[in-house]
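Dear H.,

Thanks for agreeing to be a second pair of eyes. The structure we're designing against is below in token form, covering all 265 positions.
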């Protein structure tokens, strides 16, 4: 009797069809995008020369511009990022709790909270800044609120997911003992999600430093104001100082956040 010969295949026919369909749609979308984007070839020919000329104008840097305009704007940027992050934590914490299905088992409330989180993430920080500049006028207040409202969706979503992944054992034990809901949250949920919460907060602060650096381009305060002024006046040596300052602060913030997170988690 001839033994059955079986051939191993990595993907089923249905999976191969789905993969082929995905690749086909991706290629079609790429071709449509290339035809839609208006690329002027003449501007690409001399792009290397323009880059070299731009860097030549940036050197040597005007270091006298730093104490005169950049330092104070940098401190304001750090304040905007820090205050915006703290405000977002205060606003995102209750929304994240309402979004967690195991903490608040009410579908309507969960969906409403998730709608708030999605709405916050769907609007770019520059758009938030433009909105608050129109309401409160240019300055650090508009930048702080823009950072805060942009961060609510990020912090609340991750915090809500951390709550949903919490172990049920301590929760059920305290609930069976008749503990009120605040005690259940503080004694059962919070110890489990506390490391994740502080990790999310630090990570968002790191992101907010980067985002707050450009809010000044729309009048929301910070080092972006100094950058916008230098760009408007075509003082490229001053632009280089601002860009180098932003780069150094972002790298330093990354090192600080990575070090602290490694000790928390």
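And this is the sequence the design step returned. I haven't edited it by hand at all.
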């Amino acid at each position: 009797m001839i033994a059955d010969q079986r051939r191993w295949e990595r993907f089923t026919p249905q999976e191969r069809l789905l993969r082929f369909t995905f690749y086909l749609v991706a290629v079609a979308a790429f071709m449509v995008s290339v035809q839609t984007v208006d690329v002027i070839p003449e501007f690409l020919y001399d792009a290397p020369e323009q880059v070299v000329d731009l860097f030549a104008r940036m050197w040597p840097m005007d270091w006298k511009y730093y104490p005169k305009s950049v330092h104070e704007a940098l401190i304001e940027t750090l304040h905007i990022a820090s205050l915006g992050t703290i405000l977002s934590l205060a606003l995102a914490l209750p929304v994240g709790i309402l979004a967690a299905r195991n903490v608040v088992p009410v579908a309507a409330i969960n969906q409403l909270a998730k709608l708030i989180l999605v709405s916050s993430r769907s609007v770019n920080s520059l758009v938030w800044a433009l909105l608050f500049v129109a309401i409160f006028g240019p300055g650090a207040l508009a930048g702080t609120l823009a950072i805060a409202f942009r961060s609510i969706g990020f912090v609340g979503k991750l915090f809500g997911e951390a709550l949903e992944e919490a172990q049920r054992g301590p929760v059920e034990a305290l609930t069976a003992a008749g503990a009120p809901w605040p005690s259940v949250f503080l004694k059962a949920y919070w110890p489990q999600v506390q490391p994740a919460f502080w990790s999310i907060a630090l990570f968002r602060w790191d992101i907010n430093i980067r985002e707050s650096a450009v809010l000044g381009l729309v009048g929301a305060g910070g080092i972006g104001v100094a950058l916008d002024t230098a760009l408007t006046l075509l003082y490229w040596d001053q632009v280089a100082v601002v860009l180098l300052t932003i780069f150094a602060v972002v790298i330093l913030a990354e090192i600080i956040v990575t070090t602290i997170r490694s000790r928390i988690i």
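Two observations from my side: The chain has a mean pLDDT of 83. The longest helix spans residues 65-99.

Warmly,
E.
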